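Team,

Forwarding the record for the chain on the shared tracking sheet. I've put the sequence and predicted structure together so nobody has to dig through attachments.
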Amino acid sequence: MAASVFDSQIYGDLFTSGDVGRLFTDTAETRAMLLVEGALAKAQGALGVIPELSAAAIGRAVMEVAMDPGSIRKATGQNGVPVPGLVAAFRAEMNAPEHAQYVHWGATSQDIMDTGLMLRLRQALALIEDDLKLGITSLAKLARDHANLPMPARTYGQHATPTSFGAVAASWGQPLLDLLAELPALRKTCLLISLTGAAGTAGALGPQAAEIRAEMAKALGLTDPERSWHSDRTPLLRLMDWMVRVNLALGKLGEDCTALVQTGIGEISLGEAGASSTMPQKQNPVAPASLVALARQGTGLLSILHGAALQQHQRDGAAWFSEWLCLPQIVLGTASAARIARDLCAGITPQPAAMGAALASGLDMIHAEALSFALAEMLARPEAQARVKILCREAGDTQTSLRDLVSRDFPALDTDRLFDPAQQLGNAPAEALRFAGKAAELAQD
């Protein structure tokens, strides 16, 4: 098996991460770091910290020089970070030592790497957001079109009371709406520039360090934290926590879809599904299973990231390395889940006949709660509940429908209404339409 399913020739389409995958390649990381070096030089040139001619030369070279990531592999192995080798190779490629000497002036490796990571995370968030919006649009259509389609709700895996398929679709989509609503604040407070030097003091950057950082942040479109966050990984933790919560919301969708296509249930269809190598009748819920697996992976990796946030002193190499091992996998897992869910939601189709059959199964006991409240208008509430329990036990023992037993014992009750699932949906249709309306508002923004 490949080291990572996301860039595997075999598994790449099963766990596709789309364009986000391109952001976590050696080439993309090298390009991002060079862009940061260019922005640093430009800010320093504008403030007179380095010669403007040198700043301009560095800025041009950043756009023109094509660095081979493989050329800095050996240096990275020796130094523990890629920036020293990258800076040395870039200076050599510039072939202008009078200007190249000002590359990386006063910065440290972590400044360049963390800022470059933030540039890539900004793009990743935008791509994930796009896929989530498309998935929400599909769920909103399901919620709107099937707001009044009855189906069994389930608690502890068992039939509970009737709900509507539209409400179920809304329950899948509403957490995604809430997560998207968090993005503006996350972008503002967590997509940060890093420029505070070797020990977070910005000593080598000179007296204009704050001005350089602010100018550089403006040029890169990132937020100036006005402090060092070398050993405070809260910004990354918050971003990764958001991504894992996306995974969990989509994993919930996957769990439900897997259950709803089980043999004997079949209350939804998923369009094209997975074939078995030996059983011709099988259509496996591959996409839902992938969502569940990605959610489980994300939660595990996030715990490692939390551990890596416990850092010693001003900078911690081991903790930082741990971050490198798991953060890209969290991002790619979320991107993959968003892409899979986008396509899955577009193919979900409810099966009304199967839903009706499920509601009719169980000897009508799915209506027991409604019956207990109907009887409470005639009896004290505790007595009403006790009578319903007795009737449910008799229904099970005699395999007689609860409706027939109620007609026998309480002929005054309107059993047609009481045992009509469409009359027992409560707020489910309204919740479905409420979600669809909010999703429509999102689409207009």
